[in-house]
Amino acid sequence: MTDQRYDRQVLFSGLGEKGQAMLARASAVQVGCGALGSTNAACLVRAGVGRYTIIDRDTVEISNLARQFLFDEDDAAQRSKKALAAAAKLGRANSTVKVAGIAEELNAQNVDRLLSGHDLVIDATDNMEARFVINAWCIAHNIPWIYGGIAGSCGMTMVILPGAGPCLCCLFPDPDACAGALTTQIAGVINTAPALIAALQSTEALKILTRSAEIITDFRLIDLWTGEWQRIPVKRDPKCKCCGGGKVASSK
Description:
The protein is of the alpha/beta class.
């Protein structure tokens, strides 16, 4: 019998008993546990993803609390490691899920050790360099991942399914050109932007982990302040240096 905590999810036709059982057998890893990550982690651990890993090297600061909903003033005062604090809190929220926190920064040298053994990677980082590392590793290992980014009142997300569609390099073919992209340190951020983008990411994660046929792979760009919402199909570039006909880019 399904855990009673999931009774409302099981009633939803998109999941049902079968989908909930699939979630319980699934594993996901999240890179970053800031504004996007704290919401993603809360949604997916509480939804019953069987094993969930959170990677983030940073500590909680008072300036995080307006938008990073997992943390509180005690975490900021104690300078708690985000990954460890998040894992502890969510472990108490759902003891049926194996939640692990890793207080490291993902890079090209440790990516294989940190991401291996998971069915899905969720991007909750705040820099493009890490995203390209994730992209290269996931393409090389045929692991789906979900890109997400925020700045100001804007957010964006896209699902990457290796071999079945475009990758991050198809969307952003010149990594160097992304160096000047707006960040929250420059543009600021309102807390509703990461909450919405994380909700979209987590929803696609549920679909991927339950093998739904309704996964949305379009690039979605949303400005919550103006209300503008774009859904843009992205084509796979046959000449893409990462997922195209040439040699797959290494993550190392």
